[in-house]
Amino acid sequence: MAKTAARQPVPTRRADAERNIAAILEAGTRLLSYDPGASVADIAKAAGVGRVTLYGHFPSREALVDAVLDHAGGVADTVLEDPSIDTAPAPEAMAGLLRSSWEILDRHRRLFVAADRVMATERIREHHDRPLRRVERLIARGQRESVFRTDLPLPWLVTTFFAIIHSAAQEREAGRLAADEVERVLVTTMLSLLTSGVRSRPE
Description:
Layout: H1 10-34, H2 40-47, H3 51-57, H4 61-80, H5 84-87, H6 90-118, H7 121-144, H8 154-173, H9 182-195
């Protein structure tokens, strides 16, 4: 009886591909959030794969950056899915959100610098809206409950939320803000902004 040629099991090939993709996305997120101009060769090297392998999964820089943004958005979504964002008192939920996710949200924002260079504006907006919606929902709830100020537009408060996070990250990197002080400074600053001028409800 003739022997059939040995073949590499398909599940093994698929597992190898999935490991390579995961390594590429992790390396791309790390490098592009630090340096938006990081090259495909640098990302491939950091992922431990060759450029041919990387291009086999992501045929262009645009495809790679798009996938990295999607990956980073998924990580941010996982953090932002904390039920307390919708159930805890708004100031408490805001403090918890900042403590748990400020680094993730800042890294996510930095990736948009890389995206601006190679991706269509509409596609970038789709990625950008994912974390924005949850933050917007929390601030809007605080406004409805009269614990957050309503004299400033909601979109402006959401923009300021992300701007404050980015500023804190820059200050830490520059050595002007101690690493163990970042969370306290962020929470104090943001809650001060959101609650400024809010009057207590009458008993």
